[in-house]
């Protein structure tokens, strides 16, 4: 009876203590944060948000090398599949150190605690969609801000004469384009 009672107490203690989060330090908190936020899904969301820009950059780079892509979207998809695993692992490998360097132990503990909550997990699940929608919002607002900044920039170019003085036709074309 004593042996059975002692075994039951040991099992109960193991169950109780395993239910309580283990005490962790800054490195463990940083590792947890990175495991939750540096995911393939997050990176796919960020990359998808910039898909058009990245495809255009790839096409331009290929053209500089004399290569014309017949199916640039498909090429990008193939590249992403070949790229994403190594990128995710590489980012994870170095990001935890970055977190430890930039945040205090108390901040890391608080961030990790938040990410363990239902709200933190909800944020993690919705971040890829938030990235994509924010990117589209940023493109729209950025275009409007750029158009509105043109006349102010044209005025500064006139006042500061930042272009070579011997190239007045270029200066005037730039000012006309900005206004």
Description:
The chain has helices at 2-19, 26-37, 40-49, 51-64, 72-102, 105-115, 118-160, 168-178. 4% of the residues are buried. Helices cover 84% and strands 0% of the residues. Mean pLDDT is 84; it is low at 15-22. It has 179 residues and is mainly alpha-helical.
Which key phrases capture this entry?
extended, 84% helix, 179 residues, mainly alpha
Structural topology:
Layout: H1 2-19, H2 26-37, H3 40-49, H4 51-64, H5 72-102, H6 105-115, H7 118-160, H8 168-178
Helix pairs in contact: 2-5, 2-6, 3-7, 7-8
Summarize the structure.
The protein is an all-alpha fold. It is built from eight helices and no strands. The longest helix has 43 residues, at 118-160.
Note the overall shape.
Answer: extended
Mean pLDDT: 84
Helix tally? Answer: 8
Number-wise, the strands total 0
* Main sheet record: none
Alpha carbon gyration radius? 27 Å
The end-to-end span amounts to 92 Å
* Beta-strand proportion: under 5%
Structure class: mainly alpha
| Order of secondary-structure elements | HHHHHHHH
> Which residues sit in consecutive blocks of at least 5 with pLDDT less than 50?
15-22
Helix content: over 70%
């Amino acid at each position: 009876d004593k042996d059975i009672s002692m075994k039951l107490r040991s099992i109960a203690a193991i169950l109780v203590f395993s239910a309580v989060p283990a005490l962790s330090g800054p490195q463990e908190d940083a590792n947890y944060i990175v495991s939750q936020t540096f995911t393939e899904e997050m990176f796919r969301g960020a990359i998808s948000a910039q898909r058009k820009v990245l495809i255009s950059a790839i096409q331009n780079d290929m053209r500089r090398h004399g290569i014309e892509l017949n199916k640039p979207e498909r090429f990008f998809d193939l590249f992403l599949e070949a790229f994403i695993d190594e990128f995710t692992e590489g980012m994870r490998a170095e990001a935890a150190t970055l977190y430890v360097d930039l945040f205090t132990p108390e901040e890391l503990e608080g961030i990790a605690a938040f990410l363990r909550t239902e709200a933190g997990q909800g944020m993690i699940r919705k971040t890829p969609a938030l990235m994509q929608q924010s990117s589209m919002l940023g493109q729209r607002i950025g275009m409007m801000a750029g158009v509105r900044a043109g006349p102010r920039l044209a005025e500064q170019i006139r006042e500061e004469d930042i272009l070579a003085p011997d190239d007045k036709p270029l200066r005037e074309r730039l000012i006309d384009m900005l206004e």
